[in-house]
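Thread: quick sanity check before group meeting

JM: Hey all, I'm pulling together slides for Thursday and realized we never actually wrote out the predicted structure for the chain we discussed last week. Dropping the sequence here so it's in one place. If anyone has concerns about the input, flag it before I start.
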Amino acid sequence: MRGVRAWLLAGVVLLALGPARLAEAQQASTSRQVTVQNETDQKLDHLYLSPPHLSPPAAAERGPDRLGDAALAPGSNFRLRLNREAGCSFDVVAVWQDGREESRSAVNICRTPRLVFGDPAMPRRDAAITNRAEVALREFYASPNGLEGWGPNRLGDQGLAPAGSFPLRLRSRDCVFDLRAVYADAREEVRNRHDLCAEPAIAFDRSTLPRPVAHALVLVNRHLEVVQEVYVSASMDADWGPDRLAEPLPVGEEATVTLEAACQADVRIVFPNGGAEERRELDLCTTPRLLLAPGWVLGAEAPVAAAAGMDPASADPETAEAPVLKLRNAGTLPIIEIYAAPPGEPRGEDRLGADVLGVGESLELEAPDGDACIADLVALFRDGREVTRSGVDLCQGEEIEIR
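JM (edit): ok, ran it. Output follows.
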């Protein structure tokens, strides 16, 4: 009898709520689903539903990301289950791929179990973007013609490999867009005022980019063993690229490789036993000849014994040229004085004497005192400005720039 009374009392309470409140209470007491609909042209990266707050919830109050590790692509739906949530009213925060946030307060999901972002009535522009270049695409942007800013990277963090394609979906009444492709080597290809309605298939192949200058690099093997592989790539490239040698380079032989790139390149040589040596940021514009030798003497002529065809291992060290430092004027004015002295000692004599080091010119500097290779360099430009480099090793055979 007591159970019947409780049941009748619950029925009276529910009837007192009225038809609308009764429907909400019944829905809130059952397993609920919310359909999230993305009608924008950006990926929805994060979605938060939390109990109502007096002001938009702070990041710590938003609760878990309801999308989990996934993202909701443009034009897609996602069914969100709220099995253990109490109540019907939630604060909603959506975070888009460009970092922009959209907040909605006190959304009643029992009355409206669908969260729609964007305008479904807005025309959708679909295009197929293909990468026909030999370099991967790192970023891609599409901006309505005439608007400032490129907006979000439409590739996200995925990139687009050579010969790959991806669908570009845009919500806009416009047909004309500016398109910008950024490759892995940071070079950019831009198509202005492209009509996506008339031409929805677009291929990027770097054909509009000016071809980089081809640099020929002579490799001279003065190491003590065969060089099995050689890799030369622009310093900004993400990988080494192909082996540049058609066949292994024997001791005492030379080989020429060609690279289309800017002046700065990285070089990696590999020996038959798998050992390797690397040189970073080599200036191909000023070093057309690379001596592969223990210590990696760059831009230097081969030792006398090697130049004469002798075995480097049997050469007299006293007859070999010692590596020297090459200093290049990368400034905008001539250098009129150069000093190189051991740290803490007086500058000594001007290494230029009556000469000057013009813009773009180079000068070889030997160690100031026998085996003491470390020196402080001071360069004086024509306008009186001094540039100091402390603790430079003059015996490494490298090139440094003074600006």
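AS: nice. The first strand starts at residue 32 and ends at 39. The radius of gyration is 34 Å.
JM: adding both to the slides.
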